[in-house]
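This part of the workshop introduces the protein records we will be handling. The question running through the whole workshop is how a given chain folds. To make this concrete, we reproduce a full record directly below:
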Amino acid sequence: MSERREQPWRDEPVQRGRILVLTDNPIARSIAVIASTVGRTVLLESADDGGPGLDARAGDAVVLCDHDAPDAPAVLRAALASEASYVAMMASRRRAAGLVEELEAEGVDVSTLHVPAGHDLGGKAPGEIALSVVAEIVAESYGRSGGAMRG
């Protein structure tokens, strides 16, 4: 008698929000490739100001890949006020501190802002950093911490 083998994946697609990536750079392009590979819809906006299409919806993830963009505060303000389920910025805590302080002074709730974006994988290459960001987005979309599977 043959037992049916259980597979660890699902064949049916799972609907998830889009990943909106702002400012075209090597990390942003790597996020787009990795996120597309895991089945996410990615919109890469090269304009620093969020471009004409930044309209985060429920379930979307917004990743600002350039904390020095001229309109970074406006982009983050809009994303944090939206129904996006994940809002992040690529920056060290030290470099982002001034921007976060500016938003807090305006009364913006930054408690859900992921800065720096991603999990602490230790990678420094654009693809490695992007992998950590996409891993965090996927983990959060399933209500998981993203820790190791082993017990």
